[in-house]
Design a protein that fits this description.
The protein is α/β, with parallel strands linked by helices. The protein folds into 2 domains: 7-84 and 161-245, Rossmann fold (3-Layer(aba) Sandwich); 92-156, no CATH class. The protein has helices spanning 45-52, 75-82, 100-111, 116-129, 145-156, 175-192, 203-209, 229-235, 239-245, and strands at residues 7-16, 19-29, 34-39, 60-65, 68-69, 85-88, 163-167, 195-199, 212-217, 222-227. It has a 6-stranded mixed β-sheet with strand order 6-7-8-3-9-10, with helices on both faces. Strands 2-1-4-5 form a 4-stranded antiparallel β-sheet, covered by helices on one side. β9 and β10 (222-227) form a beta hairpin. α8 packs across α9 (239-245).
Length: 256
């Protein structure tokens, strides 16, 4: 029997002050896959992610994480759901006054009763997983942008989550550093069997890491494409989807 999806989004609508951003979408994320949410600027990619991690309740519909409705859960049940996920925000969001190992220890200090030496050992292991062994006592300001992103992923993994959410992980990185981060994501997904949900519009990263994508379109406020990125690039019959994947500009308006 096939495993149930680790994430199920059902008839989801997002709205702010009565303004609908995403309207009545449904999709599933399978366990262990790297799932990418993409689309043009303003289509609601980050809005969808913020709802999936429980920052905002849906205007309509449900978001189920490992079978639990994150919006309706409260108290200990909600904390249990949140412990199944880790989040890396676009900026990395490391605390500048703390060393790397102190940053990675934070979730352990907040959510566990482990002894000090056990928390330190786990934090060291997480930093080693992302290639930052030996940088434990460095401050975030002493690191490159790519190293800060990897440290943020290490912190997101501190509680051994089932799902990692990454918001624009390649933003602000040069192509080589971005490619190295892509390799880190793939290695973690394959070796640790973690499910990744990644918001990005970086085509090179999409082709490198995505098992499957959904594409949002702000004009219709819906999902306009689902599938493997290479197949959408080569075989989609939607002109806008093909334009996005082939990185083509809009046709210039005819001169009068």
């Amino acid at each position: 029997m096939a495993e149930s999806p680790i994430i199920r989004v059902e008839n989801f609508t997002a709205a702010y002050d009565g303004n609908v951003i995403i309207n009545d979408i449904s999709f599933e994320v399978q366990r262990g896959e790297v799932f990418v949410i993409l689309g043009g600027s303003g289509c609601g990619k980050s809005t969808l992610l913020k709802h999936m991690i429980g920052l905002y309740p849906p205007a309509a519909g449900k978001i189920l994480l490992d079978g639990d409705d994150i919006a309706s859960a409260d108290g200990e049940r909600r904390l249990g759901i949140l412990r199944k996920i880790g989040v890396m925000y676009q900026s990395g969001a490391l605390f500048g006054s703390l060393s790397l190992i102190e940053n990675v220890r934070l979730p352990l200090e907040e959510f566990t009763d482990l002894p000090e030496d056990a928390m330190t050992l786990i934090a060291r292991m997480k930093l080693k997983l992302v290639g930052l062994e030996g940088f434990e006592n460095h401050m975030p300001s002493e690191l490159s942008g790519g190293m800060q992103k990897r440290a943020a992923i290490a912190r997101a993994m501190a509680l051994d989550p089932m799902i990692l959410f990454l918001d624009e992980p390649s933003a602000g990185l040069d192509p080589i550093t971005s490619a190295e981060l892509d390799q880190t994501i793939l290695r973690l997904a394959r070796s640790l069997k973690i499910t990744f949900v990644v918001v990005t519009h970086e085509l090179a990263s999409i082709y490198a890491i995505a098992d499957r994508v959904i594409m949002l379109d702000k004009r219709v406020k819906k999902i306009v494409a689902t599938g493997k990125p290479q197949e959408l690039r080569d075989h989609s019959t939607d002109p806008w989807v093909r334009q996005f994947f082939h990185r083509e500009a809009d046709a210039a308006p005819a001169k009068k």
